Amino acid sequence: MSLYRFLIILSILVWGLTSCAPAPGAQVTAAVATEVSTAVGSPTPASETSGDDILGKLVIYSGRSEALIQPVIDAFKTKHPHVEILLKAGSNSELANALLEEAANPVADVFITTELFTVQSLAMQDVFQSYLPAEADQLPPELIGPNQTWIGLTRRARVIMYNSELVSAQEAPKSIFELMDAKWKGQIAAAGTTNGSMQAQIAAMRQLLGEQATEEWLKGLLANDVTFFGGHTDVRKAVGSGEFKIGLVNHYYFYLQQAEGSPVGVVFPDQGEGEIGLITNATAAGIVKGAHNLAAAQAFMDFLISPEGQNLFAELNYEYPLRAGVPLRQGVQPLDGFRLAAVDVVKAALDFEATFDLMERVGLP
Amino acid sequence: MQRTLAYWFVASTGRKSPTSPWLAIAAGLTALFVAIPLVYIFFRAAGAEPAAWQRLLQARLWQLLGNTLLLVVAVTCGALVTGVSMAWLTERTDLPGRNVLRAMLALPLAIPAYIGGIVHLALLRPRGGLIPLALEEIIGRPVATPSPLGFWGAAFILTLFTYPYVYLLSGAAFRSLHASLEEAARSLGRTPWQTFWQVTLPALRPGLMAGALLVALDILAEYGTVALLRYETFSSAIFVQLAGRYDRSAASVLSAVLVILAILILWAELRVQGQRRFTQIESNWRPAIRITLGKWRWSAFLLVASVVSASLLVPLGVLIGWSLQAFADPQTLEAVFRAGSRGFGSFVWNSLWTSLLAALLATALSLPVALLSVRYPSRISRFIARFCQVGYALPGVVIALSLVLLINRTLPFLYATPLVVVLAYVLRHMPQAVRSSESALNQLSPSLEEAARTLGRTPLQTLFQVTLPLILPGLLAGAALVFLTSLKELPATLLLRPPGFDTLAVRVWVWAGEGFYVQAAPAALILVLAAALPLSFLLRQEQIFSDSSIS
């Protein structure tokens, strides 16, 4: 019987709390948060921090997974302690979809993607407002969107990682086309269609090689029983443990796995004569049109390309910072020596829809 | 066409009573509310361009259909065999420790299947799992262990975490079964084996069918486990479509096919269930005699103990171990507590208040439906009650898809608020509330209410002063069931949550997706404990399970 009473009391409690505030979770935790921050901040005057002018909520949609963006958000928060950051992490296209549907009633302030085609196609659909951070002159000009609708953050390369206990450096595939070779049948792991970097790789290949050759490559992977995971973390762990010999990943997944002590090696593929070159892409960010907290959004964009922000991407996640003069993390292979595949971002964004049709037609999981 | 309104409202079971118009309107509105996502999905699917249908028909649809049906059949059979044998062993034999085992066999219902899947995957992943690694350490070379991935893995794990439905329903049936039935069969010359197949099993059938139905619909809607174990079904394919593509027509097409599949299963169950009835003579009831297992005693015990271990003790033990590990390491502990946009407390709180609010709303909405169908039985009231079962056929991903599209267009002020998540829970779990309210009302004699009316109370006064206080335990049971299932819900929460809004289920899923098992463990443990509370309340009530066959 005491359980009855407990449940009744509990329900009355919740009912009371939920009916007195429109968003109870928000209200209660926000109250707690301000209490804590004033308690902590009281000995030192708040005006000492540079960002005390930035207040309110900042809603960030991020195609970078939570683990790859949270440290940057945390660093931003130590500079601007009065801004509350609400993060929604998901796949690029899922969030892009949400942005398009919310266009009349925007929720997000900033959108971060893991490749350029999604931001560019959103920019063409008028989702972003122009903003050029003061220090954007430190970025390569080709990685700033038309009309300053987006800015590039970091570069990443599509590489082949292998388990070095099971595959020798000579044996490892030197080209992404060797992944169709029957000798790797059932031993390759890659990311599936929800993954932005994989989508972007296929879009880049369509532009470089044409629809037919790309379709043949995808069919070759499927025929070779490649296992497609939801994300690259699973891929790197599976290769690191030896469950698979070969993985098609972004370069930093190799470094992350190596840092865990796994026996893994890496190939920056397609460097031979007549081959397509290394496929790279860049993460990017833009401010959503109709953003509720423009000041915070702009400060966040500034921070993303500041030396501190860029350094975090380089150090924590082994990425190639786009800002001139920010060093690579020790041990990361510089891209200078490699031939990079040249992809026209605007053209690829225009063709992005056809890439999705292709993936669906061949039945990529 | 000739039928008048009176035809629809005339009681089909003989007793005539005037239906209160307000009650009929309230029940009708509830049915309408439940109908919206269903109608909208069919509308979207029908409106999809032919090219989308064609692409899907060519490449995916048949394979998905095959995969999904195969898993549904395999898990339903697995759950039936496991559930009935566990119930038989604990109810009808002298199994050692049966009283403790009886409770432990029901508790896996508090563990979401994807959390069980995460634990088993971490233990058994080929080459990378803890067990293969330990074996390699001991033996000195890699040993092949059964993989939890793919079809067999998914079927195994899902069986482990769905058999309790069958177990509880058949256990209740075993307990209420009259001893004389089986004794008569034996005295007429049937062997024990023949008696089991010809007498016991048919008498259990209503309970088994209800259990099988719950399992089958659960598997159709399951997202987390199949995604984790890399087995593609309709639910996971719809999720991938939503996350991977811009246009939503393909997702709508897949959703419509999935919903039709679920409705077919519901309908088939109604047909089969309606054909046969069992009546037991209530007098002279005594429990059947326990069968002495003799030399099989300990092997039977081992069998039950291994089911309990795989579905309850191992997952709980691993979660506790990981949680201790998280608490021992200050760095992980800090990551646990600072996680998400608003920290650990916020997502415990979010889980609790959304599930509780959903439970209260679903129970409140179920009342007019149940009152109408129990007190004023007619074709229309029965149709409304049946229609409110449709939530069973709407998997979380489908509800999420239709709410995303609908809310933003029609109720933009609700968009990106946690209330949308609550709405999804209510829609999905309404059937449980309706059934509980119906069974509570069925047990209350109308003469009590009639007495109150005779003594001058208005219908509304009667409702609040007589009916509600008396059926409160039944209503609470329904609310507890909705709370339990809402707490475990994953795909709709993942797709509908506003920015910065995390629940325990979402947190566990996100962390485990990154491979941070130790970090995810405390949240998973709290989720399981929070789910065990309403479950133990339900187990004490128990009639909720024996009465939940579809009326």
Descriptive overview:
The complex is a heterodimer of chains A (365) and B (551). Chain A is α/β, with parallel strands linked by helices. Chain A has a domain of 151 residues: 3-Layer(aba) Sandwich (D-Maltodextrin-Binding Protein, domain 2), CATH 3.40.190.10. Chain A contains 13 helices and eleven strands. In chain A, strands 1, 2, 3, 4, 5, 6, 7, 8, 9, 10 and 11 form an eleven-stranded mixed β-sheet that branches. Chain A starts with a helix and ends with a helix. About 10% of the residues of chain A have low confidence. Chain B has 551 residues and is mainly alpha-helical. At the A-B interface, helix 1, helix 2, strand 1, helix 3 and strand 2 of A face helix 3, helix 12, helix 16, helix 18 and helix 21 of B.
Brief account:
The complex is a heterodimer of chains A (365) and B (551). Helix content of chain A is 42%, strand content 16%. Chain A has 365 residues and is of the alpha/beta class.
Secondary structure blueprint with pairings:
The complex is a heterodimer of chains A (about 375) and B (about 550).
Chain A: H1 2-20, H2 24-41, E1 56-62, H3 66-79, E2 83-89, H4 92-101, E3 110-113, H5 116-124, E4 128-129, E5 151-163, E6 188-191, H6 196-209, H7 211-223, E7 227-229, H8 232-241, E8 246-250, H9 251-259, E9 264-267, E10 280-288, H10 294-304, H11 307-317, E11 320-321, H12 345-350, H13 352-362
Parallel strand pairs in A: 1-2, 1-3, 6-7, 6-8
Antiparallel strand pairs in A: 3-10, 4-10, 5-8, 5-9, 5-10, 5-11
Chain B: H1 5-9, H2 21-47, H3 50-59, H4 61-92, H5 98-106, H6 113-124, H7 130-139, H8 150-176, H9 179-187, H10 192-221, H11 224-228, H12 234-244, H13 249-275, H14 297-328, H15 330-338, H16 344-375, H17 379-387, H18 396-410, H19 418-442, H20 446-454, H21 459-488, H22 491-496, H23 504-513, H24 517-541, H25 543-546
